[in-house]
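Open question from group meeting: does this chain pack into something compact, or does most of it stay loose? Before anyone orders reagents, we agreed to write out a predicted structure and look at it together. Recording both the input and the output here so the notebook holds the full record.
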Amino acid sequence: MSSAPEVSVVIPTFARPDLVTRAVRSALAQTVTDIEVIVVIDGPDQATQDALSGIDDHRLRLVQLAQKGGAPNARNVGVEHAAAPWTALLDDDDEWLPEKLSVQLAYARTATVALPIIASRLINKTPRAEFVMPRRLPFDGEPVCEYLTVRRGLFHGDGFIQTSTIMAPTSLLRRVPFTVGLRRQQELDWTLRALDHDGVDLVIAAEPLVLWHQDEDRPRISLNSPWEAQLEWVRKMRPRLTPKAYAAIMMSIISSMAAPTRSFRVFRMLLGDARRHGRPSAIDYLTFFQIWLIPPQLRHTLRDRILSRRRPAPGPAVEPTPATSATPDGRPSTAEHTVRTAATTLPVPTSSPGSDVHV
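Structure tokens returned:
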């Protein structure tokens, strides 16, 4: 490996040696070989050190933290250790298809801005179904915050971004670190804050390049976040959101976390907040009521059955025009920031998720 690799891969982990080993092997199996893989072990964890010590590859580096600080902090530490101009993020329970970095670097070379965030579609694997997300690429001129949050279906949204799909300039990830202490919506929070900066755009590759394992029989830290903390987060993010996006987050994401309280007071507060500061659609109201009325397990089953029967919609053939709305200092506002897509530039990888990923 040269002194300056082409891409640094950052993987935060703690106490999941088998899963992180799978993730590391998928990163080392990339067709782009000039990389470094930085695994940040988030606290004392001898089992993970022992498991990764069995991988004989000079491109793998371990960073051991003295105490737990959470995944956002571990990612930030990994980025500080990155030697490459690009950093790609990978969660320890996900996998990459072998062409992932190659495809994203090709998109990066054709980007029209100085600091492009390159994301992609992924293959969502649950115990009940397997389907591609996001279902569609952004429409021409669609604000990023609306693309990523506004629903057009009762049990699902169309837009989506997930940490393991993101490759971005290392300098941008250092300038805009992940929010330490935020338990959910970490990638949405980071993306919207990053888009506040000059020369930054979001590019979404049409190809599914990541395997996202949604194994519901094992603990997921991100699913145990107190809804009050997430409510505080979305209220702070309101200046970066359109009224449509704010209502969608409040009536779907926050409501799904708060619904187990079965509290009419909380129900009324969230509904009132969404109506007062947002612009709910009919789908938002339907989503809100079904979240509070239908048990989560049944909702998830219905969602997976619906999505597994639908093919993802094709992306637009024409690259969207950048947003024209601006903040008082003349920069495009995050709430109206549009997203660029590269739906027809490159061929879809021919590898199948079942056979070509190293596990």
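Observations to bring back to the group:
DSSP finds twelve helices and ten strands in the chain.
The CA atoms of residues 138 and 147 lie 6 Å apart.
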